[in-house]
Amino acid sequence: MKKKLAMILEWIRPAGIVLVYFLAEYLGTDAISKFHILGPMTVMVMSGSVALESLILGEAASEKIGYRPNRAYQVQSGLNNLATALTALLVFVLDWGRYADAAVTSSMLLFFVLSAANHLATGIRDHNFKPVNLMRPLMTLLLLGLLLPPMLQALQ
Questions:
Q1: For residues 138, 114, 64 and 74, what is the CA-based torsion angle, rounded to 10 degrees?
Q2: What is the pLDDT of residue 135?
Q3: What is the dihedral of CA 60, 65, 68, 71, to 10 degrees?
Q4: Per residue in 95-109, pLDDT tens?
Q5: pTM here?
Q6: CB of 92 within 8 A of CB of 43?
């Protein structure tokens, strides 16, 4: 069951981001209001799902990516992602402004860029050619392409 849920999360993330993007386009009236929806909500989807995966699905999540399970590290990483997702929720609900939107989004993007580099390195170094592991860098590039232009526009 956990293996199946771990694989379902791989599809929930992009589906959630597509939904958030359309909400931002539909409900946003200008660059700042669109990014206020797009940035923090994407952080909630991405960091929240990674937290769920790390904290609840542990070994199944490691196996899916091709990593050896390390429960202590997974819990610590999961709590960090949960903290990021909850911060994004506060930024969104309390409407702390475009700079807070950009800060929490930047923090998440930096994490995923560094994580993608790690996935790429393990793919090369350890011959970890599992599709989910190799998709991480590509998905990170797509996430950067989706979020950086509206973030920069909102900050002008």
A1: -160
A2: 86
A3: -50
A4: 999 999 999 999 999
A5: 0.90
A6: no
**Strands annotated E in the chain:** none
- pLDDT tens-digit map of 22-81: 999 999 999 999 999 999 999 999 999 999 988 888 776 666 666 777 767 788 889 999
Structure tokens, 137: 């860098």
pLDDT, averaged across the chain: 91
Output the CA angle 141-100-14, nearest 5 degrees.
Answer: 35
Q: Which two tokens stand for residue 82?
A: 């949960």
| Separation CA 83–CA 85 (nearest Å) | 5
Residue in this structure with the two tokens 């170094």, named with its chain if needed: 125
CB 129 within 8 A of CB 123: yes
Find, among 67, 51, 72, the residue nearest to 9 by Cα. Answer: 51
The parent domain of residue 126 ranges over: 2-155
As for how many domains the chain has, the answer is 1
